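Q: Got a minute? One more chain.
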Amino acid sequence: MQVNLTNLIMPNQTVAVALSGGSDSMALLNYMLFASKSYPFNLIAINVEHGIRGENSKNDTEFVKNYCLERKIPILCYQVDSLKKAKEEKLSIEQSARALRYECFYDAINNKKCDLVATAHHQSDNAETVLLNLFRGTGLAGVTGIAKNLNGKIIRPFLSISKQTINEYISENKIPFVKDETNDQDDYTRNYLRHNVIPKILEVFPKAESSISRFAEIASLENDFIEQAVKSALILYFDRAEISLPQHPAIISRAVISALRHLGVEKDWEKAHIDGAIKLCTQKNGDKLDLKNGVKIIKEYDKLTLYRDGKREEIEIPFSFGEHTLGGQTLKITLAEKTVNLKDGLFADADKIPKTALIRTKKDGDVFTKFGGGTKKLCDYLTDKKIPQRVRDDLVLIADGQTVLAIFGVAVSEKIKVDDNTKTIIKLEN
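A: Always. Here it is, folded:
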């Protein structure tokens, strides 16, 4: 049995083999012990007692402790309560045990007890994972299989090795191991697949597991490509997410899911939500729909925006210099030097602003005179400027009656522009 470790382990790193005492992990420990004699890395073991199988599980831990002691292999031991976590977080026992196990692995890494943790996942495990996700209903990401190198911290040296090859290695080298009686039970979904489904497949397709692994490698490569495209198309802000258009439906689909997660919706979205988002791409500007948990998606010119629809805050205070915190925004109205570059922001002639002017949000009937002249309804001007409908009610204005003199972050009216006769220049910031 030959495994290439050079692309997984850097020289002189410390590798902790995840050691349950079962046949696969014992085979991995022995292989790594043998490999460490010719390749320069340090070997230790890590054992997690999950609190599931009572005394049998504790006996397994004692077995691996003694085995490592005899061979002078350092071992880290953790004890967790998988049953408690499963009950409190409404997880399956399998999910709970895995989550706690990996918490222990990362604890060992983060506390500098090892650089890497090696698990004994093999080709059959990989095939099971792909089929399980497929049967549960997954997208491309779900059929990429088990990663051979996870975050540069968790490695799986046996991932391309068949279970049969591992069993032969155990037999040839007379490696002792303990048997987990739960592996023979069909109560767990993976065990049912392992004992009842895959053997039938292998009767017809003897190389099915290696074929599934090759398929997973191809899927992983193509999934990486899509993920890169999604990163290019998706911009995440604190309170929203934007997807640039046009995009292929596959990119829209993945980007919408990422955006939902960013906005706190981790699960329970449906295909109908994704289909609705894809359809929205071809609809008119301003069209929107509800997704999950208060998240909305709207078509805004050349993008889709996902956001949580908040209640509009009405703002109206007398105009004055200084800093104002309104509607969650900080506005600054400050004096500027006469030598200022007017292209460096929004500037206005303070003496042209009437004493009756207010700082407020927009109202029906507001009008705006743009630079160079020409007065039109404020809503029409904002449409021309391609300001999304979603954000218009939150824009803060300087207005006198229904005459809008300035729109913070957007424009200053012709009526208060700086000219050669201006004595006092103010800068408007938000």
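A: The domain at 237-308 is CATH 3.30.465 (Uridine Diphospho-n-acetylenolpyruvylglucosamine Reductase; domain 3).
Q: Perfect, thanks.
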